[in-house]
Amino acid sequence: MSNLAFVKADSLVKEFSIKPEGISFMRAASVQAVSGVSFEINRGETFALVGESGCGKSTIGRLSIGLLKPTSGSVYIDGIELGSLSGSDMKRMRSKMQIIFQDPYSSLNPRMRALEIVAEPLLAHKVYSSRAQAMQESMHLLEMCGISSSLASRYAHQFSGGQRQRIGIARALALRPQYIVCDEPVSALDVSIQSQIINLLVELQEMLQLSYMFISHDLSVVRYISDRVCVMFLGKVCEIGNTNEIFGSPRHPYTKLLLEAVPKADPTQRKDKDVLLGDMPSPINPPSGCRFHTRCPYKKGICSELEPALEIKGDRSVACHFPFS
Amino acid sequence: MQSVLEIKGLTTHIKTKAGTIVPVNGVSLSVLKGEIVGIVGESGCGKSMMAMSVLQLLPAAGKIVDGQALFEGADLLGMNKRQMRSIRGDKISMVFQEPMSSLNPTMKVGKQVSESLILHTKASRAEAKERTVQIFQEVGIPDAQRRYNSYPHQLSGGLRQRVMIGLALALKPALMIADEPTTALDVTIEAQILKLMKGMQAASNTSIILITHNLGIIAELCSYVYVMYAGQIMEQAPVFELFAEPKHPYTQGLLKSLPMLGEHREKLHAIPGSVPNLASLPPGCSFCPRCDIATSACYTLKPGLEKISEARKARCLLYSKGVAL
After folding, report:
1. What residue spans in chain B does CATH classification 3.40.50.300 cover?
2. Is A10 helix (H, G, I), strand (E, B) or coil?
């Protein structure tokens, strides 16, 4: 483990039971949302998780801050394993890590004013001895995130989507965390608002030395914001490495086709592209061998029989029998 | 070339608690035979309401107050319910964003397509079924014979949208209106659906109005683009010209705020402020509170949509004298 790493995940596995409760005649089944994923996030770094819906990226985000318990494997924050912590230690640990959600409409309490929403973590963790001090800090945080103090006593529904996301960010910053999981923070926003929020996240990172896990399906945003990226398919890592290297020369076929699938906002670059065939395979019955082989245009015999191991070369890892060089 | 649909000065009002709003304010556009026309804009700009007005599918609070929509020479806005029913599906079809909510959940998908064939073409049940299976094959549904008997919930999002497109193209309409057809889909599935739409359009010479917020999709598919903001067309241009040299400050801002896949930029351009509330629009140019280059004249004069070159128009005081309030 490099001494820079702030977050370390080691062979994370998360299974969800899909047995309908109370129906005894149905056989219990489980779905493995995350199957043996390891990564490190350095201090001050933005680590992106990309992949299509159902690939397990949000589950990893939640595992990494202890909102979900892994079936096996462990998460270390600043060298401390989350699973080993007692309730009160965990509570103290939680102030170091926060999450920003995708939907700014459902992640804010509609009965609270903006000021109260941001002050709540301060009050819950008893950071200040008086309520007035907490409110003052809350006001300061809101202003830092671009919500002027004259709006602080409004309710969530009186704000636009972009402003609500700013409130969500201010709340996440309240306890001065060092690590923030940003779970699709701009996906629900309009194009003209997205760049405001991205700029805010980048500014805050520089100011406060934050480490981000940035979960997104939007590859252009990921390319812009992240230092390193992990491409996932059906609960497994396809490829991890430096963002520029991966986007510049993808080694895994899935990464390559995912990048090609993104519509480019430049009509002069139109071309007849190879589209990835078929649908996402079911995570309940994942394909044998390489999980991507049912959709892979480059597959060979071995791909359906043997699962490729994640081959680690320096900072770049790829899990494919026949990676591009 | 001959135009399929010619909308002239369409204005729609919607009664809300906050008063009457104008989501479509004097919109004129034309769609040529076999052309894909893009309408791009952010949430609440009126792009969907414009399409709903044309098909007379407005919510009860909505009312068309002015304008014409000439389809094959006849004004759609003056037609009664019976006449509209013979147009919808048969001559003009529509694909919506969320296929799950536009398909009947209690009816097999094959039945839903063959029903429309029976209704509109007087085909027999057997003929309709045969034709439906054929359509399913054309839109790339694997195992079409078996999928005929599936219910919508048994299909993935991509397959459901293929069913919708099959349904929309079953009667070989002259025009298809696709409202955010891929927004709910993953990027690799989006690429499949866009390729399918392009192929179908080329094969049958159907005209398409593509409504989206995604400039990448516009760049890849459309030949002519209308940019909407707060119920009005702000700029219209052939796609290559629009992306090469956007004329309206709003279009310029939108294009600059996109993080591009190919390059890494220092800071993203952001359009300040938020998407306007249609109930409280500024008196002059509706974009001026967010515009970098707005002058005092922009707050007092309403710009007209002026011709700036052979095939282009823009609504900005840079190109028009404006009308005093």
Report:
1. 3-91+173-282
2. strand
